[in-house]
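Why do we care about 3D structure at all? Because function follows from shape, and shape follows, mostly, from sequence. That is the central idea of this module. The next example makes it concrete: a single protein chain, its amino acid sequence, and then its structure expressed as tokens.
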Amino acid sequence: MQRIVKPPRLSHNCSLLFPPSSTPRRVCMSNTAVVVSSVRPYSVLPPTSDPEEKAILHRMMRVDHAGEYGASRIYAGQMAVLGRTQTRPVIQEMWDQEKKHLSKFTEILGENRVRPTALLPLWNIAGFALGATSALLGKEGAMACTVAVEESISEHYNSQIRALMEADPDRYTELLQMIKEFRDDEMEHHDTGLAHDAESVPGYWLLKNVIQAGCKAAIYASERI
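And the structure:
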């Protein structure tokens, strides 16, 4: 992953004010003027005039949106096969969380005019097919798929967290908080899959490695297309 280039720091003497019933404001003193502005007048992505930083952040959001979209389609496929079994509540709970993640990334893309990946139609079909096919192996197959996918997504989020922390953790506070929260949800899904006998499906390690190879390819493609 590319490094995020830090934007120029303010050279003024700045302090934070917390007036009653308002958001924090930054007051910057120079020799000629006092400038008052909101500290974070944005939701998750900080505004930037640096084209390289903008491109990297947009790439991050594009691939994260694609990942959550694909995960949601996987759970839809699993529900199509196992929706009338005792496994339904487990899958439904994980699917509901993925829908929330997807909704947030869709909101971020709209707010920041980020183009979604052109591969969404492919992930629509491939995700559903993977979920349904794994579920045809039974509950254990579906959970093995969940373990493989969620582990891949968690590792991907961890790489983004490291990049943002190395760049400027203060500047990316909201973005880091969101990604960490979503990463923790994915790890919870991973652990749920293990708790529901994912490793007992025949050919577990082969199945897991094949799915994760597909996930890595999908991440690479979604960042660029």
